[in-house]
């Protein structure tokens, strides 16, 4: 809209200027002096003002470039006029007047907008900012016009300069007061933000210590799953993924769980889910994977159901029980993968298609049983590895490629497999952000 108005002003007053130039002097003399003066002043003001409107709605970078060009035109024109005046060339006065008016009504309005936009995010009062910006605008324009009047030996030059300098000085003092106030407010806000940031950081660090405390220790994992690895890469400091291990007599129960969300919200859900698994085994004395998940689901639904606000959070999980060479498995969304010794095929045991938590389908979790032979390797995991974006096209890794990756490293021991998986994940991810927590557990039966 402003651009259209600017173009219209330029067209109208350019036509008027052209008429003045082309009209014979005898006809111009017939125009009353007052009207003649008004027309000349209008053309001198509205032509540059129209030019100031055209770039108003442009982006900041382009507008600043045009602002600089307008200033350069005014300065060059003014000094050219001064030099020509010293040499007593005809037209020198006209060049100086046009350059001065170009500064006042083409450059200065753009500069006014620039200052307003610069200080707007920092000012408490929009009215205060508008007034101060216009004080600057008026003050500097009066000084520029005062110098023009002085060079041209016109009256009121000293008055214009005096008023201009007083106005600019008053503006500078007020700007200084406001700037000090802004700096004080920003310093106060920064101190508050630093304090809040430190409190949040300390809280997250403490949450990490709590989460680490509920995870099985490396020694415990190695003691009961000797030939194994746990690849655990939280997206944030704390995670929604967790791994879990319990023992009873000669039975080893272990799981890879993926709770709703990641970061602090996911970590909070993971604590509830971890406790629910512990209760199912320790208090309810359940050892069959399917029944453990049924009871865990019941506990979690009850815990989250106590809230006035409906909470549908829960977890996906792959849970295994190893007794001798028999492996029992039950899962919520997350499958079990088995790669038999000397095989190049991933044997997949599918999970129930429902999470641990509130869900519209309520049916028991199925326990699957398989017999393991020496050299067979099993994998349970969350979806973080296969869902990672990366590669040349920035797409998801997907389960099919994850399977190929695991098959390709079957001749390696489990410790080496962990390193290879970490390297593959990092290479695939590249410069992209990690999208989710990553958890992969591998175990080779011997």
Blueprint of the fold:
Layout: H1 2-22, H2 25-28, H3 33-53, H4 60-86, H5 92-119, H6 126-151, H7 157-214, H8 218-224, E1 228-233, E2 241-248, E3 251-259, H9 263-282, H10 289-305, E4 315-323, E5 326-332, E6 336-339, E7 347-349, E8 368-371, E9 377-381, E10 389-390, E11 395-396, H11 398-408, H12 414-429, E12 438-444
Antiparallel strand pairs: 1-12, 2-3, 3-4, 4-5, 5-8, 6-7, 6-9, 9-12, 10-11
Would you give an account of this structure?
With about 450 residues, the chain is an alpha+beta fold. It is built from 12 helices and 12 strands. It folds into 2 domains: about 1-120, no CATH class; about 215-445, PPM-type phosphatase domain (Phosphatase 2c, domain 1, 4-Layer Sandwich). The strands form 3 sheets. Strands 1-12-9-6-7 form a 5-stranded antiparallel β-sheet, with helices on one face. A 5-stranded antiparallel β-sheet has the order 2-3-4-5-8, sandwiched between helices. A two-stranded antiparallel sheet has the order 10-11. The mean pLDDT is about 90.
